[in-house]
Design goal:
alpha/beta, Aspartate Aminotransferase, domain 2, Aspartate Aminotransferase, domain 1
């Protein structure tokens, strides 16, 4: 049996949407982007959503557009893109530890890492579950810090009934491994009109008006850069895919939640496995389904043997960012991160996607149990 780590969910609606865009002759950033942005903003519950070529670009512009050049507090237990965006934008990351149960930022560690140079906190909603936002927001208000939500892994996830990406400046990813996909792509969400305007300009060469808007002007050729910007635009083709994907996101997320509950029940019978914790105030959408193994089990061997058995197991994230070559050499260390380093050595990501079958979930649980028994001999 072959069970990949993830599998995209598409049907004829995406194919039809792509054909319509191709026939329209408008392939660059255009009408479908506006449609997708409007839908996404309404779904998240914010005023503005701005499509881009990646979540990394969204994170970078969230920093640049808010003139952040000092320190940004961020967890090291994340994909390197989160921190790369900080450095590329001209700011400096300060790493803090995570909570053992959710692998999300430990709010109790934030305040002691604040210095006179701290300007922002970047939370990373890990694997489909929101951070505990109330204490983060309280600390941010107290110290006048900007909050940025890296919600790449938590599209549709909720904290106390409110969707991630709506508490502050939200940044989402539509990479094929995410809950919905456009192939490559990202989006930034905000309720700040001025921020939305500046981000929209920065992601399109620093020009305030879009090509679509200029088509309605008398002098369509007038393009004046207000900022030194970038080309971070998403094409209309990808936006058309996003429109169709977003129409079914709740159904897809509910399937993930159902599969996760089943797998948690099966794996919960294995003493050496700690299954995911879902906080009662959260709605976890399981972009990643992770378990932690006991210290008496060789995690790496378990992953390798699962892969040999046809199960696309992986690890998110080892090494954590502060132990990666560039960041070690550059000296971006900060406080000691014992939980982060422990998680990097004990966590395993198991297959999770809407199309999983019960027999596949049973096979995953069975093979995990068998291999652990073998490793204990």
């Amino acid at each position: 049996m072959k069970i990949p780590l993830c599998k995209i969910y598409t049907d004829n609606n995406e194919i039809r949407a792509i054909k319509e865009v191709l026939k329209s002759g408008w392939l660059a950033h255009g009408p479908k982007n506006k449609e997708f942005e409007k839908m996404f903003a309404e779904y998240i519950g914010v005023k503005h959503a701005i499509t881009m070529n990646s979540c990394t670009s969204a994170l970078q512009l969230a920093i640049e557009a808010q003139n952040i050049t000092g320190e940004i507090i961020v967890p090291s237990f994340t994909f390197v893109a989160s921190v790369n965006a900080i450095v590329v934008a001209g700011a400096r990351p300060v790493f803090v530890d995570i909570k053992n149960d959710t692998c999300n930022i430990d709010a109790s560690k934030i305040e002691k890492s604040i210095s006179n140079n701290t300007q922002a906190v970047m939370v990373v909603h890990y694997g489909g579950q929101s951070c505990d936002m109330d204490p983060v927001l309280n600390i941010a208000r107290k110290h006048k810090l900007i909050v940025i939500e890296d919600s790449a892994e938590t599209i549709g996830g909720e904290y106390k009934g409110k969707k991630t990406g709506s508490f502050a400046t939200g940044c989402f990813s539509f990479f094929p491994t995410k809950n919905i996909t456009t192939g490559e792509g990202g989006i930034l969400t905000t309720n700040d009109d001025k921020l939305a305007e500046k981000v929209s300009a920065l992601m399109s060469h620093g020009i305030l008006s879009t090509t679509l808007k200029r088509e309605k002007q008398k002098k369509t050729w007038l393009r004046a850069a207000t900022y030194a910007g970038y080309n971070y635009r998403m094409s209309d083709i990808l936006a058309a895919i996003g429109v169709e994907q977003l129409k079914r996101i709740d159904r897809l997320n509910n399937r993930r939640r159902k599969h996760a509950a089943y797998l948690t029940k099966k794996l919960g019978e294995i003493p050496e496995i700690q299954t995911p914790v879902e906080k009662k105030f959260n709605k976890h959408v399981y972009q990643i389904y992770t378990v932690k193994v006991g210290e008496n089990i060789n995690r790496d061997q378990l992953v390798i043997r699962l892969r040999k058995a046809g199960i696309g197991a992986s690890v998110h994230f080892d090494p954590p960012v502060h132990l990666q070559p560039f960041y070690k050499k550059a000296g971006y260390t900060g406080e000691k991160l014992p939980i982060t380093e422990k998680m990097a050595k004990t966590i395993i990501s198991l297959p999770m996607y809407p199309q999983l079958k019960i027999r596949e979930l049973d096979y995953i649980a069975d093979r995990v149990q068998r291999i652990i028994k073998e490793l204990k001999k």
